[in-house]
Amino acid sequence: MFPPTYIEGFHDPEAVKAMEYKELGKTGMFVSKLAFGSATLCALYNLNNEAEAIETVRQAIKQGVNYIDTAPWYGQGQSEAILGKALKGIPRKAYYISTKVGRYELDYDNMFNFTVEKTRQSFKKSLELLGLDYVDLIQIHDIDFAPTTDVIVTQTLPELSKYVADGKARHVGVTAYTLSALKECIEKSNIVATVLSYSRNTLIDDSLLEYIPFFKKHKIGLINAAALCMGLLTNNGPQSWHSASDETKKQCAKAAQYCKDRDVELSKLAIWHSMQCMDVDTNLVGIQNMKELQINLDVTLNGITEKEKAVLKEIKEKFLSTKNHHWEGKDVRMYKEGLKKK
After folding, report:
1. What domain count does the chain have?
2. Active site residue: 6, 21, 45, 74, which one?
3. 177 in catalytic set
4. CB neighbours (10 Å) of residue 85?
5. Domain range spanning residue 324?
6. What is the C-alpha separation between 148 and 98, in angstroms, rounded?
7. 294: domain CATH number?
């Protein structure tokens, strides 16, 4: 059975048939198991081929990847602008797309702003960059950085609900690294339809599993993002700005070297591992080029080989046996300290 986003003559029917789709909470959006993360479509992740990135987005949609995630924070609008170019000429019905409000610039003074006025300005600009009249999901970005949860509940969420009423967004969601912040927000508001949790269901951190029953009880759509821990679980390693501890980076680097020595891609193993959790609705993976798209489609549709399973078992035992190597609170502390210095 084809999802509601399927368009005959546009999609590859065999690819769409092979893809698994699940309803995102109670939104009525049936999203692909693999979702397209566009944080990588900017200088933050050293994007160097915009033309290929645009074609990669288009091919992903044709191959049945029907959920796309972006945000103003990703390159201060660069990701949204590239997606705007990529989506030109593609039927609007063919995909679901989400963007965010709340997180913006590298400068500490302008990094976060959850006020109604800034939210309104940001959302208007996002629609312009994307070239769209509406988005399927509008999310508040990294709510754990807000002064208090009450700011989110009394200011930002009510403003987003207006966009739903006006037809400029279909649903409202929240994102955070801190899982308790997501839980608290849902407890205080009945507006939230989805949560995006990142780097919390991975080879080195499985703390998301503790919170899944709560999300399911409230029929919240669950977007599981960053199975690669923002580059930690790849053969090339993370960007220099990554917040993980030196020890965590060291252990992941050992696992990566072990994989390279056996001609295996650590990222493929990490994504497959994360996708074994059946309680999430979609798995959001950053994709920058055609090679990465094909690797992710292959692991989504075909799994991993016996050799790769053996290597995965070995790196778990040798390097990644201890779980929950998270960096919760570190980024928030750095942000607050940066504000004080300013």
Report:
1. 1
2. 74
3. no
4. 17
5. 13-341
6. 24
7. 3.20.20.100
